[in-house]
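FAQ: What does the model actually see?

It sees only this:
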Amino acid sequence: MVRSFMLYKNFNIKQKHKASIILVGNFDGVHAGHQKLFKLAKEYKKKYKLSIGVLSFEPMPKMFFNKKIKNFRIANVNQKIELLKKIGIDFLINNKFDKNFSKTNYIKFIKKIIFKKLNAKFIFVSSNFRFGNKREGNVSRLINYETLYNYKIVKPLPLKINKKIISSSLIRKFLEKGKLDQANKLLKRNWTIEGKVEKGRQIGKKIGFPTCNIDIKDYVLARPGVYAVKVFKKNSKNSIKGIANLGYRPTFNQKKILLEVHLFNFSGNLYNKYLSVEFLKFIRKEKKFKNADKLREQIKIDLRTAKKIKWTNLKLIYPKLLSPWKPIYIQKNQKF
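And it is asked to produce this:
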């Protein structure tokens, strides 16, 4: 049976999605902590026979208010939508966050949106949830209006690991420090960057290692360096192994952040193709070499290191999402 899913870009939702369970938040990365919330929401769905919806905003409010924040997201908006669909929600309200909306009074938000537009029955929020003009709305104020507007606030305890709350902020810190294994464990999948292959200066090709160059846009900048990766083309279930350099390319005095991916045993033109790059293992930090020859020698070492990784064992490290989702790993001689 195919599960139905509806994406809304405003609060004008269909009647069948009113009087539902609503989870409010950015859900950046849809990590293990988020997945715990959805598991609980599904229990409510089963008990009360209600739909599950997510209320989120685009751009993320933190990025809207602070224009200096460039590289922040764990997942782009398309990835978030796909992950939420796989989790098993019924609908997503991805409302535009702009200057006008940011000035919405918290009481108006509760009355006009939560009550009149959505008629939410259960609202899942974190304990530090803030909303409304100047962040005047909080969980206590939401609870104060429960009876008047006929909803119930659900504030689950956060999921912890080693006494630390699993959060998008913690995962960003792990990525920035090169602790990819820990980040992937909390995501319950391999961290992934999606993007279009752009034509670059073709330096990699000149030194014998052609690369697919991808602008990382507003993804969080993981620790600059070399990674073992697995790459998918858009709408393809087959993947191919490779190594990637994420960083500034100091050997060639470049300053723009770029993801450069070299695929093993691959030849072909991928310009303007959309790729999904899964980060499997951090190999080494980015380094400036004296010349291209020194860099070439190091890349050979990086390739040998990457090829020694037990790729087939990686799927045993990271648990599945709560939905029936299984990553696909390339087999020998499989086409990309």
